[in-house]
């Protein structure tokens, strides 16, 4: 799973505990706060949810810290969107993707368009009109002063 789009708290949990335990924790307790205990105890509910090694790693890294656990539905949505993009790159039709991901065809189109728009929107796009001009010389006022250095025409005063 591509984790860069996930909420920061979940990225932290994945980095510390691993993807499986972190997602299981979000599935069972998402939308709540978690205060990480200062030591590993077999009778703590986290022990049963994520297992000993993941619990120990979490305590070692985050003991005493309170974390906001994201709701699992957002994680699942992000995963499903990634799946849509992956299937589209593999050449699946929009209808096939809709059936595979349990989305409508229209929603698959929306997801794919959003990715295409995000990929097309780069910082250089703001300069496209300027770069396409044949004369890339700076604009000047009637007096010959570059307007970038004199935007309000006050240089002569």
* Strand content range: under 5%
* Distance separating the two termini: 61 Å
How are the strands of the biggest sheet laid out side by side?
1-2
Sheet/helix structural class: mainly alpha
Order of helices and strands: HHEHHEHHHH
Our Rg estimate from Cα atoms comes to 26 Å
How many individual β-strands?
Answer: 2
Uncertain ranges: 123-136
User: Counting H and I runs of at least 4 residues, what is the number of helices?
Assistant: 8
Oligomer: single chain
General form: elongated
Question: What is the averaged pLDDT score?
Answer: 81
Q: Care to describe what's here?
A:
With 157 residues, the protein is mostly helical. 54% of the residues lie in helices and 4% in strands. It has 8 helices and 2 strands; from the N terminus they run ααβααβαααα. It has helices at 8-17, 19-29, 45-50, 52-62, 72-89, 94-101, 105-120, 128-132; strands spanning 33-35, 66-68. The protein has a two-stranded antiparallel ribbon. The longest helix has 18 residues, at 72-89. The chain is elongated and about 50 Å long. Mean pLDDT is 81; it is low at 123-136.
Summarize the model shown:
It is built from eight helices and two strands, in the order ααβααβαααα. It is mainly alpha-helical and 157 residues long.
What attributes does this structure have?
157 residues; mainly alpha; two-stranded antiparallel ribbon; 8 helices; 4% strand; elongated
Describe the protein's topology:
Layout: H1 8-17, H2 19-29, E1 33-35, H3 45-50, H4 52-62, E2 66-68, H5 72-89, H6 94-101, H7 105-120, H8 128-132
Antiparallel strand pairs: 1-2
Helix pairs in contact: 1-2, 5-6, 5-7, 6-7
